[in-house]
Amino acid sequence: MTFLLLFLSVGLGYLIALLLKVKEVKSLSIYLAFSGAFLLAVTIFELLPEVYQNPSKEIGIYIIAGILLQIFLEIFSQGAEHGHVHEHSHKNSFPWLLFISLSIHALLEGFPITEDNNLLIGVMVHKIPIALILSLFFIKANYSKTTTLLFLFLFALMTPIGNWISQNMVFTPEESIKITAVTIGVFLHVSTTILFESSKNHQFNISKMTAVIVAILIAYIL
Question: Average of pLDDT values for 163-167?
Fold first, then answer.
């Protein structure tokens, strides 16, 4: 069921893009702010306590490594993980750099998801608007439907594959903590960037602040 929900969250984003036919990502800023706040809160409430059960400075190194990894990936994805996608210069070719960078990000998302935390919900809330924005990008850039669906299908598989690897490969507790710490760094960078970039001139209005507060409260209650 976890694999299916992760896969369908991308499909749902694509369907919403087709139904709404939204051309401007700006209209999604409130939902992006909600998703960023929710992902950030789940990371803090669920994942940080997990890796800091036995605190050490080494854990911080892996969290910082995750932040740096995400910054590096965004050189190629141009910020698609947090709602920024720029038109590709070769519209008839498959955007491999975008796909590979997003796939690495999506694989890491799947590793810490377990039945003992609510990260599944957080990742789904994060993936739906990202898939929506990716879909709008492909439509606006006049990519063929085949390329669009192939990209989204493969992208949708990445997080379930990451979760499958974490569930079926043997990792020591130390290795699992290190991978989770790297993922925390990725989530911290992406979620905070979403919060800042979803607001014009980096200023929150009442609607977005309300969305952020509601997201944090829901994440805490869960």
Answer: 92
